[in-house]
Amino acid sequence: MELVEAIILSVLAASTPLLIAATGELVTERSGVLNLGVEGMMIVGAACGFGGAWLTGSIFVGALFGIIAGMLMSLIFALMALGLAVNQVATGLALTILGVGLSGLIGAGFVGERLTPAAHLYIPGLTDVPLIGRVLFGEDAFVYFSIALIIGVWWFLYRTRAGLILRACGDNHVSAHALGYPVLRIRTLAVVFGGACAGLAGAYLPLAYTPFFIPGMTAGRGWIALALVVFASWRPGRLVVGAYLFGAVTILQLHAQGWGVGIPSQFMSALPYLATVIVLVLLSRARTGGSTAPAALGTVFVPDR
Amino acid sequence: MQLVLERRTERSNTIALISPLIAIGLTIVTMTILFAILGKNPLLALQAYFIAPLTDSYSLQEIAVKATPLVMIAIGLSLCYLANAWNIGAEGQFLIGAVAGSWIAVKTQGTDAGAWVLPAMLVLAAAAGALYALIPAICKVKFGASEILTSLMLVYVADLLLDYLVRGPWRDPNGFNFPTTAEFDPVATVPLLIEGGRLHLGSIIALLVVAAAAILLGRTIKGFEIRVVGAAPRAARFGGFNANQLIILTFAVSGALAGLAGIIEVAGPVGHLQPGISPGYGFTAIIVAFLGRLNPIGILIAGLFLALTFIGGEQAQIAMKIPLDVTKVFQGILLFYVLACDSLILYRFKLVFANRQVTRGAG
Hints:
With 305 residues, chain A is mainly α. Chain A has 13 helices and no strands.
């Protein structure tokens, strides 16, 4: 029983950064922008998040630093891809290359330092209930926030007028523009929201997942988050399922080593990446009757005024 | 105030030529500010980065050595990007090439094998790189899976495979437990061009690759097809060009070149297989490809320039304790400026001060 509980807890912890980053990217892509810089924004968020928490002693300030760092990074992307109409794929890659360098530079002073990780909720009585107690009432604040975030995004996209306009920009920017909606402004906001989420997801790693910062600690999670958006066919509900599935694959790999499965650890570590490839292939194959991606995704839009 | 883009009626060729230079200039200005923020004398830092490596023959050779993998990979990537196929996983193809070629080196170690070893390593590495690149290409063509994401995921897989081999079956028993194979035999090593120097045969191979790409793109129908499919997909369809076939072809060539670069790096400057054989060559080559305007000669120049930043970064670290990550920041900023300046070729930038939409839209 304790083992099951431990596994569920660690799956939730491993899934949370994926869920937060992918939620941000989902909103960005729904507005018609493909930002491949998630990994770069995450890794800068991790360095700034750790730095903020280390300097102030507050996890909350650390998370805030991560969010701001992600937003600033995404603003560079918005300026390039929306302001200057540069190819979004190339700009996103540039953002990741820059982010990896910046994160190393910012984080150099923090390598080897340790933090007290984010506290877990404890409600006497409820948290003590066996099995479900700790899973439901004993998580850190990030986990609850990530669930609130995806519910909020679902509500925004499907239940508000602003969400409808945002989706319209992603599906047909020419029509949205003709109707008088400021396409570029809406897309900029969506990109910055995605940046804030990626920054927070990055900050989660040194603030709650591990108590220290190491260079390159995002280890491709930003790219997996991008794949998750495809996996979810751009729908919030499926995104939750996808994020937890991928979290489970990551944890399976860790526990398999503990159980003494006779497979070299590197092969198990490759699982999440291989799973991503396989999932992408299976999903794209299943979707023969036309793509579910926002129709204007990744295309340049220059308003003719 | 609003920034407005206005499409040019025709491409500006002057700007197309000078835009990489503007980008480099802007990057150097930005770096000067960054050095000042880091508390280093910007002039000394720039001198260490860009001038010092050009002043002695050892560093000059080192620049050519570093440029070799960058140019080879970037040539392959440029073919992909011209055909609108996004191969982002060159780093993985580089590593797989290094692993596949090293397999022969490890198996023939100390067996008095003949001069066939190195050529066999090069061929196997190129084949392995091509096959590895074909995975995302086929997933794209057959199933429509994003080649960007799949090629990138395979980078991590290749990295882990290399890690497993050098920590497990291929580890040098006399290597003091370091994760590395034994030093390759002389027959499994890329020969040096200058006795006692660093320059090796790989640089000649890179030059041949540049020449071959220039001929392919400039003088052959295939090269024309690649450019048309990328630039005008609709026209290409009417012309009967098969875009899917070109994705497969450009990915295979690009993977082969990355794989070849991988084994040349391992059997040349490094001398054995170990983790960390690439300081991100596969990713830096993306910058090289764009900075070189996806043109073979441009890529050669861009490759030498990016190699200079690697060597300059090392010198600046030794001389001025400037962190090595500054080189990566430099490369990232450079790519941004290159892309931004490219936008100038297609558009005119205009600052509009009054919001014209409101005044006109009311009527």
